[in-house]
Amino acid sequence: MSNRAFALVVFAAAAGIIAASRLVTNDYYFSAAYTVLQFVILATAWNILGGYAGYVNFGSAAFFAVGAYSSVFLYRWVHAPLPVMIVTGTLVAGLLGFGVGYLTLRLRGVFFAIATLALAVVLFTCVVNWDYVGGSRGAYILQPKDLPFGLKRYIHVLFGAMVLMAGVALVVARTIETSAIGRGLAAIRDDELAAECAGVPTLRLKILAASVSGALMGMAGTTFPYYLSYVEPSAAFNLSYAVNSIAMPLIGGMMSWMGPLLGALLLGTVQQVVQVTVSSEWNLLIVGVLLVAFVTLAPNGIMGWVDKWKRRRK
Amino acid sequence: MTPLLRVTGVTKRFGGFTALDGVDLEVAPGERLGLIGPNGSGKSTLVNCIAGTLRNEAGRIELDGRDIGREPAFKRVHLGVSRSFQIPRPFASMSVIDNLRIPILYGVKAPVTLDAGRATDEAMRILDQVGLGEKAQAMSAGLTQVDMRKLELARAIAAKPRLLIADEAMAGLSASEVDDILALLFTLKERGVAVIMIEHVMRAVMKFSERIAVLVAGKKIADGDPQAVVAKPEVVSAYLGQ
Asked: B83 vs A197: CB contact, 8 Å cut-off?
C-alpha cells in the first residue's frame, strides 16, 4: 500500500471512530480511550528512534511534559486555542529531540539511555522551579465553555483531537519506515559503522529520527493539561510514560509501525480495565509481568510471532 | 596525471602507540595495488584513515587532488571511496539482498529516489558476481563466514566506488573461490575502479597486483613491482624473521 493510500485509510478510520463515538453516552469511555490513544502516540513515536534506529530513549516523559507545559505556558500567556497549543508543543518537543539527536554523536547504547533519563530529571527540576507555569504547586487549566461541532463535553473534543493525532503519528511512522530513511535507520540499528561506510549519513538520520520522535511525543502531551484541568510536574513527568512507551513497542514488536500500535492497544486497555476492576496500584506490576512474559516467550513481540507464523505457512 | 588517491605523511597514534608513522601512498585511477605486511603492521588502520572511520593526527589524504581528510566517512563513500571490513559486519536483521540496497540507495550523493526494480536488478547482478545469487533472500545473520566475506565485498562494490579497498576479503576462501573473487576484482579494472587489496593470501596478491606496498610497524618499507618487492631482503625478514 502506498503511503498516501495508507494515510487515507487511517484518516477514514479516524473519522469513522469519531463518528461512532457519538453513540457512546458514558463519558468514562472517552476518558479511557483518550489515555489508550495517548499511549498509542507515545509508543509509536518512541519506536521511531528506539525501534527503527535502535537508540533507547528513557526520557519519553520529558518530551511528553514539554508538550504539556508548552500548552500551560500558552494558556497562561494568551489563552491560545487548542490547535495552536498542539502545533507549538509539537514543535518545541521536536526541538528538544533535535538536541537529543546530537547526543547520539558521542553516546551509544546504555550511555545514551542514561543521558535521556538525566534529561528528564533536569527538565523536571527546571519546571518545578518555574513559577510562571505553576512550579511545584501545579497549574489549573479551565476547559473552554463553548465547544465546536455541537459537542456536549470537552472530553469529546479532546478524544477527537487524540484520534486525529494518533492517526498523524501512525502515518508519519509508516512513511519513515517504508522510505529510504527507514532503511538507513535499520542499517544504523544493525551496525552504525558499517552503515556510515555504506554511505548512510548516520548523524543526519539519527537527528531526524530523534526530532520526529520527540515532536510526536510532545504532541501527545499538548492536550494533557485540558484533560486533567490541573497539571503538576510529577504528573507530567511521570515515570509510567517512559516505562510504557518502551514496554508497548517491546510487547507489540519494534520492527514495524504496527507493533507499537498493537502493544499500546493491548497494554493500555488492560491497564484501564484493571484500574477500574481491580486497583490502580496494579498498573506497573502488570507492565512488568507482561514484559517478562513477552521477553521470554516472544522476544520479537506480537509482530515477531505473526512474522514467524507467516514464514512457516509459506 | 594526478593520482586518484594520494596519502602523504599520515600518522595515527593510539595513546603512546604509533600505529602509522608518516605513511605515503599513491594510487592511480584504475590501478590494482596490493598492500601487505605482518599482523599489527597498521594496514587496517591505514584503511580506516582513508575511509574516514579513524582520524589521522598528521598528514593529508587527497582524492583527485582534493583534501578529504576532514570529511566524514559517508561523504567519502559519496566521493567514491568504498571499503569492506576485515571482520564481516553485515546488517544482521536484513536479508542478503537488502544488505546491498543500503549502499545502492545511499552510496551516491543526492538521488535516493532510485526505483525499486532497478535497485533489485543491480543488487542481483552484484550478488551473482560474488556467487551469492542463490542466497539473495536468506537472512544475512545466518550466512557462513565465507559467505559473509563475499557479502562484505558485494556491499562495498554496490556503493559504486572509484577506489575499492578490500580488507582481507579472501581469508578462509577455497582456491576456486579465491579465483572467482579475483575474476570479479579484475572486471572492476575494466570499469576504471582502482583497488587496494589487503591480503595474506600471497598467491592472490601476486596474481592480482600491479604494484605492491609493504607496511611494517606503521612504516612503509617497500613499494613497487610485485616480484621485486617480495624479493627485497627487508621484506623477507619482516615476514619470516631473521
From this structure: yes
Q: Are A255 and B93 in contact (CB < 8 Å)? A: yes
Residues A11-41: tens digit of each pLDDT:
999 999 988 888 888 889 999 999 999 999 9
- Considering its fold, how many domains does chain B have in total? 1
Best B75, B106, B152 residue to mutate vs chain A (most A CBs within 10 Å):
B106
Is the CB of residue B105 less than 8 Å away from at least one CB of chain A?
yes
C-alpha cell at position A173:
511512522
pLDDT tens sequence across B145-159: 888 888 999 999 999
Residue of A nearest to B105 (CA): A180
Pairing assessment for the beta strands A230-231 and A139-140 based on DSSP bridges: antiparallel
B53·A190 Cβ contact <8 A: no
Grid cell at residue B126: 552484484
Distance from CA of A75 to the nearest CA of B (A): 43
Neighbour count for residue B221 (Cβ, 10 Å): 17
Q: Which uninterrupted H or E stretch holds A20?
A: helix A3-21
Short-list A217, A245, A210, CA closest to A101: A210
**Does ipTM surpass 0.85 in this model?**
yes
The predicted model scores a pTM of 0.90
Q: Give the distance from CA A228 to its chain's centroid.
A: 18
Q: What is the mean pLDDT of residues A81-99?
A: 94
Evaluate whether residue B150 is within a structural domain. no
Residue range(s) defining the domain that contains residue B71: 5-89+162-240
